[in-house]
Specification:
The chain is α/β, with parallel strands linked by helices. 52% of the residues lie in helices and 12% in strands. It contains 14 helices and eleven strands.
Length: 419
C-alpha cells in the first residue's frame, strides 16, 4: 500500500489528454473485453432466442389462449412475489452497517474522480464539500474531469480548484459522450491505492473515505468495492423528490445492505462507490458505451468473483423536482439496465458459471425484475385502483394481495438528513 509522498504538484493546472489516451478511454474496454462490452447491442444468438420465445408464445396463444395466459400469469406472479419477498426480508433486518473509521499511521493515497459536464454553477460547492473530507489533503489525489468543449465549466473549475492536490483534466469532446469515458480518463491517471467517484452535486459525509478505508482493511482480498448510501436532501421540494427519497432509502439503506450481507451481486449506485484501484483496473475500468456504468461494473465484479460491501456514512444529493428531468434520468436508467441485462444474458450459462447460480438468480430479480416492473407499473397501478374502488372483478384475491404487498414494500426506512 502506497503512502502519501512529498511529490510537488502545481495547483490550478489543466491537463490536456492526448489522442492515444482518449482512444484507450473510449475503446480500451471493448477491445479487451468484447463479450462484456455494450458497444454491440444484440448478438445473433440473442435475436434467435428472442424470436423463438415470441414465436412459442404466439403459437401457444393461437392454439390454447387460456394456457398461454396461465403461463404468463404464473411466471409474473412468481417473479414479483420473489422481488417483494426480498424487500420485506431486507426491511425486517434493517440495520445501519457498522462503520469503523480508519486511523492508519501511513495514509494511502486516495483518488477522487469527479466527472463534470455543464456543472459550472455547482463546481465551487463540490470543491468545498471535498475540502471538508476528514482525510489528509496531502494523501488526496482529486481529478476534476471536464469536457473540453464545455468552456464555462472549464473556466469555473480552473478558478475554483487551486489546491495542490486537485488536478483539472480536460477530456476532449468525442463519442460516446458519457460519464464512464471520462472516468476511464481519470482512472488512467489515478495515483491512489483506492478510487471513489463523486458527481458534481454530491456532498459526501466528511468521514466517508475513512470508513471505506476501514472496510477495506477489515475485508479480505475479494472485497473490491464498498458502496456508501445516497440520501436525498430536498425531499420536500416536490412530490417527485419525495418519491426519489423513498426509492433511495429503500435501495441504499435496506436492499443493498441485505444483498451485501448475503454476499450477493448488487448494482452499484452512480456515485460514492469506493474501489481498490488494482481490482478496478483488472476488471477493465468502466464501459463507455453503457449509460448505467454503475450497475454494469457491480455485476462485472461479481462475475470476477469479487465482493461488494456497504458502509454507513452517506452522500447527500438533490433529486430532480420537475417531470422533464425525471423522465430524462429514468429513461437513461432503464436503457442502461437493459444494456447491462443484455450483456449478462449473451451467454447465460457462462454468467451462471462466473456468478454462481444464486448470484445469477439474484441478478435476475434485481435487474430483470426491475425492468419488467418498470414496464408494467403504470397499467398495473391503474388496474389495482379500479379493482379497489369499483365492484369489477379485475384481479383475483391472490393478485390483489400481492399488489398491496408490493406497494406496501415502498414504505421507506428513514435516511439521514444533511447537516
Amino acid at each position: 500500500m502506497g503512502g502519501a509522498d512529498g511529490e510537488s504538484r502545481q495547483g490550478n493546472a489543466a491537463v490536456q489528454i492526448d489522442a492515444a489516451a482518449l482512444d484507450v478511454a473510449r475503446l480500451g474496454f471493448h477491445r479487451a473485453f468484447p463479450a462484456r462490452s455494450a458497444k454491440r447491442r444484440l448478438h445473433v444468438t440473442q435475436v434467435l432466442w428472442l424470436g423463438a420465445v415470441v414465436a412459442g408464445l404466439a403459437w401457444l396463444g393461437r392454439s390454447d389462449p387460456t394456457r398461454a395466459l396461465d403461463v404468463v400469469h404464473v411466471s409474473a406472479f412468481a417473479l414479483f412475489a420473489a422481488m417483494i419477498l426480498v424487500r420485506l426480508l431486507a426491511a425486517a433486518h434493517l440495520a445501519a452497517p457498522l462503520t469503523r473509521l480508519a486511523t492508519p499511521g501511513l495514509w494511502p493515497v486516495y483518488t477522487i474522480l469527479c466527472p463534470l459536464y455543464r456543472e459550472a454553477n455547482v463546481v465551487t460547492d463540490l470543491i468545498l464539500a471535498l475540502e471538508r473530507l476528514d482525510y489528509p489533503h496531502e494523501a488526496l489525489d482529486i481529478k476534476l474531469l471536464v469536457e473540453g468543449d464545455d468552456e464555462e465549466t472549464v473556466a469555473a473549475t480552473l478558478a475554483a480548484a487551486r489546491a495542490p492536490h486537485m488536478e483539472v483534466v480536460i477530456v476532449p469532446a468525442s463519442a460516446p459522450r458519457t460519464k464512464p469515458k471520462a472516468l476511464n480518463v481519470g482512472l488512467a491517471r489515478a495515483r491512489g491505492d483506492y478510487v471513489v467517484v463523486y458527481d458534481a452535486e454530491d456532498r459526501p459525509h466528511p468521514q466517508q473515505l475513512r470508513a471505506a478505508l476501514a472496510a477495506f482493511e477489515d475485508g479480505d482480498d475479494t472485497l473490491a468495492c464498498v458502496q456508501a448510501p445516497l440520501a436525498i436532501d430536498n425531499a420536500g421540494a416536490s412530490w417527485l423528490a419525495r418519491q426519489y427519497a423513498a426509492e433511495y432509502a429503500i435501495q441504499f439503506f435496506a436492499v443493498l445492505p441485505f444483498l451485501a450481507r448475503h454476499r450477493l451481486p448488487l448494482p452499484l449506485g452512480g456515485t460514492s462507490n469506493h474501489f481498490r484501484t488494482q481490482k478496478l483496473r483488472e476488471a477493465g475500468g468502466w464501459d463507455p458505451y453503457n449509460v448505467t456504468e454503475d450497475a454494469d461494473i457491480g455485476y462485472r465484479l461479481a462475475r470476477n468473483r469479487q465482493q461488494i460491501g456497504v458502509i454507513a456514512p452517506p452522500t447527500w444529493e438533490e433529486a430532480p423536482v420537475g417531470l422533464g428531468a425525471w423522465l430524462n434520468q429514468r429513461s437513461r436508467w432503464i436503457k442502461g439496465h437493459l444494456q447491462t441485462w443484455l450483456v449478462l444474458m449473451r451467454n447465460p450459462f457462462r454468467t451462471i458459471h462466473e456468478m454462481g447460480l444464486t448470484g445469477f438468480l439474484a441478478m435476475q430479480l434485481m435487474l430483470g425484475g426491475g425492468l419488467l416492473a418498470a414496464a408494467v407499473h403504470g397499467p398495473l397501478a391503474f388496474v389495482v385502483l379500479i379493482a379497489a374502488l369499483t365492484p369489477f372483478d379485475l384481479l383475483a384475491p391472490a393478485d390483489f394481495t400481492l399488489a398491496l404487498f408490493g406497494y406496501s414494500s415502498r414504505c421507506s426506512p428513514r435516511s439521514p438528513r444533511a447537516h
